[in-house]
Write a structure and sequence with these properties.
With 449 residues, this protein is mainly α. The protein has a domain at 393-448. It has 18 helices and eight strands.
Length: 449
Amino acid sequence: MRTALATTGIGIAAIFGTAMAAPPDISQRPELRPIIATPVPGMRPAPPLGRSVRPVVREGATPQTAVAQAGEPAAVDNPTFRQWLAGFQARARAAGIRQATLDRAFQGVRPNRSILDRDRNQSEFTRTLWDYLDSAVSDTRIRNGRTAMARHGPTLRQIEQAYGVEARVVTAVWGLESAYGAVRGDTAIIQAMATLAYDGRRRAFFEAQLLAALNILQAGDVQPARMRGSWAGAMGHTQFMPTSYLDHAVDLTGDGRRDIWSDNPADALASTANYLRHFGWTYGQPWGIEVVLPDGFDYSESGARIKRPARHWNNAGVRLTNGSHIPDHGPCSILLPAGARGVALVIFDNFHVIARYNRANAYVIAVGHLSDRIIGGPPFQASWPRGDRVLRFAERKELQQRLTARGFSTGGIDGIIGPDTIQAVRLYQASIGETPDGYPSIQVLEQLR
């Protein structure tokens, strides 16, 4: 998961708006992680996602310490690594980690150059939301999701009853995170976390993850050789970071271990439901529903920050695609992930709960829409502005600079398109007589230029 999971970089969220099970993950640049491994027996392979939703780090990272190059001697011959490791082990012992655990965990561990290369050299995420959804919610992934739900039906029903999170939602997270268990990652977590902590750029974060991983080993939930996952630290069927594991993993099978690495996904799926429940999941509440906006809709009221009762939107003429009124599931917002020319959604509190897994709106929409499609829901009815392209990082910063110079504050010049930037775009659009949908398109940047 995100906090359950972790991320790094400026990726999906920067493009599609803020919205990780990663809790305080680090960032949102998605890691290149094609889904190619052989899926669960009997399932058809899911097509590559191109870039995974598991975040990794970046933008303009600068090395801070030397690391072992490929073919270099082991860490014991690397004085700077030995110095860092001695200090970390002292802190770990003070936190209750036994020396025997440290000896087992760090046997043969050395800095891994390839992990740092991946951490520092992530290419910019340039896929549009609709391209992302084409693969994240492909026919194959929907079909495999139905197969997974049928195969693990009794387990998923048990989880739904115990944790109050719909089986289809848990299944959709599973599908996005590891292609239903087909791609769980094969990087040794202790080595990965030690490498990234030793590197120093985000030392506090990765030392915390490393200490959590040691606690997991000391508790006997898994042996070091089996503690594997993504190079950025996410583990198991639903990609929990070590700290999220400690906080939210559960033993559904009753074997005394919270085994999210097993071929049996029961513990991992229950842990995901427990995570979502912890952050406020409401059983029976939609994550979001596609809507049709009336002529004359006040676009200044759109956006995840503006919550209104369902009756407010119904009185304004907003309708579901079948013409029905918006059901009353509590305060809700109108979200326009691609502006006035794309799909419009009414989103509820459960949208924000999924966002605790991954803050990127693209990820939340993918999980929610996949969960609907798995049980037979329709595709989105409106079209997407497929002629548009994603703003590059430098262009996002330029957009913020130009908006700020015009008096429309974006809350900083960081290249991350969050609520402040969207509001600034909306105010600028209104000032020039354009539809104030807050969509940061290349057309808006060209107008500012």
